[in-house]
Amino acid sequence: MTDRLPPKPDFVILGAQKSATRWLRVNLGRHPEIFTVARELHYWNGGDAAGVLRPMTWYRRQFTGWEGEAFVGEATPGYMIWRHTPARTALRMRIGIPRARLLALLRNPIDRAQSALNHHARRNRIPPGARLVDVLRERRPVTEDRLCLVTGGWYERSLHPFRQGFGDQLLVLLHDEIASEPVRVYETAVAHIGAGSGFVPDTIGRVVFGGNPSGGATRDALTLEERIEVWQYFREDVARLEEFLDRDLAIWDPTRSPPVRTSAALPPVPVPVPGA
Predict the structure, then answer these.
(1) Contact call for residues 77 and 17 (beta carbons, < 8 A)
(2) Is the pLDDT of residue 173 over 70?
(3) Residue 127: pLDDT band by 50, 70, 90 thresholds?
(4) 11-270 has which CATH code?
(5) Which of 26, 32, 34, 229 is deepest in the core (most CB within 10 A)?
(6) From CA 86, how far away is CA 49, in angstroms rounded?
(7) What's the pLDDT at 153?
(8) 12 and 97 in contact (C-beta within 8 Å)?
(9) How far, in whole angstroms, is CA 249 from its chain's centroid?
(10) CA–CA gap between residue 40 and residue 207 (Å, rounded)
(11) What's phi and psi for 69, nearest 5 deg?
(12) How far is C-alpha 124 from the geometric centre of its chain's CA atoms?
């Protein structure tokens, strides 16, 4: 094992929460050229009461287990969370790790919200048996959304400052495509980071969808009418996201398309450099 201080990360997985970021982080870490830290660090969205970050040496020391791999990275889905001020997080990262490659995995925001609710219910933050539609009817989406059920799915708003700061260093992938084409999603991420091709972990097909063993389990928790109701919290942001990615996301919209488990195979889209 090397005694050198680990380097600054070459890449960061931003989120979104409950969108298979752990799957991506674990499988990237199995690549022989890549090291990923096994826990969320919350460095760039943290700081003291005055908003001052811990020293960079502290951050680098968190990459315990690094043995000289060429590429180092971490995954903290909180970096994309609206409540954590993505604009401030993106600015800090732009100053501290300006050459880093960024990756984001995006999931149908209705399913992401349902998965997040299940996650919080298991931890007794929401009463067991609570239904997503009822919780959202009782809480304002921003001021009373401490668990980020709605704002955790505001992808375009959250990614906008990262696009401004990092341009095509940001790669956006879709959670829908992991089940149908996990190898392609993985290889796209590896290529974006800059590591060598030709290696695929033998665990690549073992996908855990946002902490739920079954990818379809959360879809059955809401009726079509309820999905349409919940969709209203995300409709405008997804419309902006379609322009952001230059792709049709009708697969997410319950008013345009019936719920299905995976989308048609489409290539993940690197975000273009603004003004290019």
Answers:
(1) yes
(2) yes
(3) confident
(4) 3.40.50.300
(5) 34
(6) 17
(7) 95
(8) yes
(9) 17
(10) 19
(11) -55, 150
(12) 23
**Could you tell me the pTM of the whole model?**
0.86
Q: Within 10 Å of residue 104's Cβ, how many Cβ atoms? A: 26
Contacts of 192 (CB under 8 A, 6+ apart): 11, 101, 103, 171, 270
Provide CB contacts within 8 A for 82, sequence distance 6+: 142, 148, 151, 152, 154, 157, 158
| Domain spans, the chain | 11-270
Say which residue, 210 or 51, is predicted with more confidence: 51
- The two structure tokens encoding residue 74: 């971490």
Amino acid letter, residue 4: R
Contact between 141 and 168 (Cβ < 8 Å): no
Q: What is the DSSP string of 167-233?
A: GGGEEEEETHHHHH-HHHHHHHHHHHHT--SS---TTTT---BTTBSSTTTGGGGS-HHHHHHHHTT
Residue 2 structure tokens: 């090397």
